[in-house]
Each structure stands twice: as C-alpha cells, then as structure tokens.
Specification:
- By secondary structure, the protein is mainly beta.
- Helix content is 11%, strand content 35%.
- Strands 1, 2, 6, 7, 8, 9, 10 and 12 form an 8-stranded antiparallel β-sheet that branches.
- 41% of the residues are buried.
- The N terminus is likely disordered.
- It is an enzyme of class 3 (hydrolase).
- Keywords: Hydrolase, Purine metabolism.
C-alpha cells in the first residue's frame, strides 16, 4: 500500500498534467461550487475571504456539493504530456471545513482522443489507493508504477474540495507521432500566413499559427455561430513548399464552442490554381474532434503543397493549427532566396561570411541581390539544407 509522504524526490519531475503543458480536466461528475479546470491551473491556489457568489463561497479549486446519497465524486485529467507517473500531489489549500477525508488516484492509457464514454469503459490501474488526506495541505503520494499513462482519475470520498492536482513524472513520447522533420510549415514564426478566412467575428484566424500554446479562448480563432448549411474555414500559405506529415488541431479552452469535425486539404500553387476546387487534395478526411483537446493526426499520404485549408464543421473555435513536416527541394531553396534577399546589406555580408563564403563569393553574392532563381543562390547558401 502506498504511504502518505512529503518532500519526496518525485517533486523534481515536471507536472505532466499542467494546463500550460496541454493538460485538461475532461470530466467531473460534479462541480457545483467550483469548476474542475482549477485543478491543473499553474501556481498555488489563491483565497479571498470576502469573495462570495451566487453559489456561495468562491474557491480557487474544484468543489462538489454536499452528498446526501451514497457514492463519491471524481474528476478525470488528461495529461498534457503522457508518461510515467512518479508521484502526485493532492493539494487541499484553503479547504479547511470542506475538504474530502480520503482520496484515490487511478490511471489509464488510451490511444487517440477518447470520449467520456470511452474513459468509463477503460481499464484503470490504481496508483494511490483510498488514503486519508488533511485539509489545507499539499498531500503528496509517491507512485511506483513503470507504465506510460495518458489519463488519471482523481476520486474523493465522499465529496468536498481540492485546490490543485499535480502529476509529477517522466514524459514518454509516442514514436508513431515522431514522423516529421520537426518543422512546422504553417507557423507564423517560420513564415506561414493566413490568406483567406470565411469568418473572423470574434478573433483573428492568424492566432491559429501563432507561437506557443494558448492561455485562454481569446488567443485562438473564433467565428460567429452559423445559421445556414455551410461551414467555416481558414486557408494558410505555408512558409515554403513541403510535405506535411503530422497535423495538430488544437481546441484548447474551446469547451462548448469547438467544432464538431474538421477536414484538412492542400494545394500546390506552383502547379495549380488554388481558385480551382479540383486542384485541392485531402490530407485529413472529415474527422470528429473533441473540445479542449490537442488532436494529432499522422498524414497517410504526404504530398508537396504550398497551401493548406482547415475546414471546421459547421463552425467553432480553434486554438492552434500545426503542420509538421519537411521542406521540398524547391521549398528549401525558396526559403533561402527570400531570406538572403530581404537582409539589410551589412547583415547579408556577415551572414554569407559566417556560412563559409569566400570574400569573392560574399562580394558577388551581395552584388547579385535580389537573387531570383534558385540555381543562382551563392554556393554557401545552396549547400545549406535543414530538411
């Protein structure tokens, strides 16, 4: 039986469930007084003794109603980073007369993006058996289990409030998703840009290719509610021509206004007119998606493209969209062309020298700008290949 411990070495491991790492509380059977999402917020829980709302005292945590029937309350956390759990902390900060007397923690490993019904039917393994906890305390429990898990179920007996739930452990990557060259072809910081959008009523579609994870719904793209039979979309010009091998469609923070389904198509504008519907080919068939979830899809048949189109059905918000893959030879050359042609004179000279060009090559390369043909790139640049 696991023992109640404190100050253990496992606290040195990262929190795999943290909201900033992509974690989410995907289900709770009750959150009458305080919402479940507070469990994985960053930082310690706060407390305002004067804060009262329509439901009663406002707590920075998850709090359920007082049970009048047998049973217990639980919440399911999807780890932002699946891995081996080395220990958990059930923090009851500020819950003094309404904390649960006991808790337990179970874990499950599931593929894909399971719905609540799938979680109910999953095989759960006990990591922390039913154990006593103290109020207003960071209750720490070591875990000795070497398996990789994706979801944890926190149960409290019979009811009460928990401020934070920390899951410390080691990340274990899924090699089936490590199929790319590591370059996000659509990213704003790499040169991607939004070239078309059906609706940007609430926020800019450029948000979907912005750096990092979102911190709120307002940092994503949200369209208006559709009242017709159509659907919304956003079209993105890639940083350069390349093959997308892994797509990420992130609906983080879109809990009740995420799309029901998405589709991703592509076009190579160097060989076809994007205005011609027949020039587009499918990378991801219309696929159902879940709220508040980072979805990852391996592209079965990668093809070189310069634009991607993300369709959402019928409408709804997207936090981030990623298209990880590799540049084509033409895309690689075009990136270098654009870069060297747009550098200020002094920086261009320094860059060519730094890449190993001789003084003569630097002078001729500098004088040749703007370089318009891929074959005319200075040798020092043509030899570079980040693919």
């Amino acid at each position: 039986m696991e023992q109640h411990v404190s100050g253990q070495e496992f606290l040195r491991y990262p929190d795999l469930a943290l909201r900033g790492h992509g974690g989410a509380v995907v289900h709770a059977n009750d959150e009458s007084f305080a919402e479940r999402e507070n469990l994985i917020k960053p930082g310690p829980a706060g407390f305002d003794p004067a804060a009262f709302g329509h439901k009663g005292k406002v707590y920075d945590g998850w709090e359920t109603r007082r049970r009048r029937t047998p049973g217990h309350d639980h919440a399911v956390v999807r780890l932002g980073v699946p891995g081996i759990v080395r220990g958990v902390v059930v923090d009851t900060a500020w819950f003094t007369g309404n904390f649960p007397p006991e808790v337990s923690v179970e874990a499950a490993g599931l593929d894909g993006h399971p719905a609540p019904a799938d979680l109910d039917a999953a095989e759960w393994t006990t990591l922390v058996p039913r154990s006593p906890v103290a109020g207003d305390t960071a209750n720490a429990f070591e875990v000795h289990d070497g398996h990789r898990y994706t979801h944890l179920r926190l149960t409290m007996y019979p009811d009460g409030g928990i401020a934070r739930f920390r899951v410390h452990g080691e990340a274990v990557a899924d090699p089936r998703l490590l199929v790319t060259g590591g370059l996000d072809l659509a990213a704003l910081e790499n040169g991607g840009r939004v070239v078309a959008c059906s609706n940007e009523f609430y926020s800019s579609p450029t948000n979907v290719i912005a750096p990092g994870l979102t911190r709120s719904m307002g940092e994503g793209w949200e369209n208006a509610r559709r009242r017709d039979d159509g659907n919304d979309h956003v079209e993105i010009a890639l940083a350069a021509a390349g093959e997308a091998r892994l797509l990420e469609v992130d609906t983080s923070y879109f809990l009740f206004n995420a799309p029901g389904a998405v589709r991703v198509s592509a076009c190579d504008t160097t060989a076809a007119d994007p205005a011609d519907p027949g020039s587009w080919f499918t990378l991801l068939d219309r696929t159902g998606v879940r709220p508040d979830t980072r979805h990852r899809f391996v592209v079965d048949r990668p093809r070189a493209a310069t634009r991607l189109r993300l369709d959402v059905y019928p409408d709804g918000g997207i936090a981030r969209f990623r298209a990880f893959g590799t540049l084509s030879a033409a895309g690689h050359a075009d990136l270098w062309l654009r870069w060297i042609n747009t550098l200020p004179d002094a920086q261009a000279h320094a860059a060519l020298t730094g890449l190993g060009a001789t003084a003569a090559e630097t002078a001729s390369g500098h004088a040749a700008r703007p370089v318009t043909a891929r074959g005319d790139l200075p040798a020092a640049l043509a030899a570079q290949d980040p693919r």
